[in-house]
Amino acid sequence: MSYSVTLTGPGPWGFRLQGGKDFNMPLTISRITPGSKAAESQISQGDLVVAIDGVNTDTMTHLEAQNKIKSASYNLSLTLQKSKRPISISTTAPPVQSPLPVIPHQKPPH
């Protein structure tokens, strides 16, 4: 189920993209800046970007999509699709360490 959003310009629009043909991932909204034009619309983190100003994004690289968005000076029209599942943006988080302190082995006094 896709939906369309038109943000009135000029930019900044207030969102970040991830993915693209060069990453073998669909273009996805990875971050929305609080209080931005994107935040005031119905755009949600994790939404897939189906088209930018009417141009299908299936074959767009990340850079091509960025350039298409940057070239929109007055209005930015996006066709989006709600994410089917919540996405985890931070896939490089360090493993959680045990909260127990490590106590070195002590030898009894001689």
Automatic annotation (TrEMBL):
It comes from the Eukaryota. The keyword Cytoplasm applies. Residues 1-84 form the PDZ domain. It holds the Pfam family PDZ. One of its GO terms (molecular function) is muscle alpha-actinin binding. The keyword Metal-binding applies. Keywords: Cytoplasm, LIM domain, Metal-binding, Zinc. Its main location: cytoplasm. Coiled coil: none annotated. Transmembrane segments: none annotated. Residues 86-110 are annotated as: Disordered. GO terms for biological process: actin cytoskeleton organization; heart development; muscle structure development. It is found in: Cytoplasm. InterPro entries: PDZ, PDZ-LIM_domain, PDZ_sf. Gene3D superfamilies: 2.30.42.10. One of its GO terms (cellular component) is adherens junction. PANTHER family: LIM DOMAIN-BINDING PROTEIN 3 (PTHR24214:SF9), PDZ AND LIM DOMAIN PROTEIN ZASP (PTHR24214). This is LIM domain binding 3. It comes from Prolemur simus.
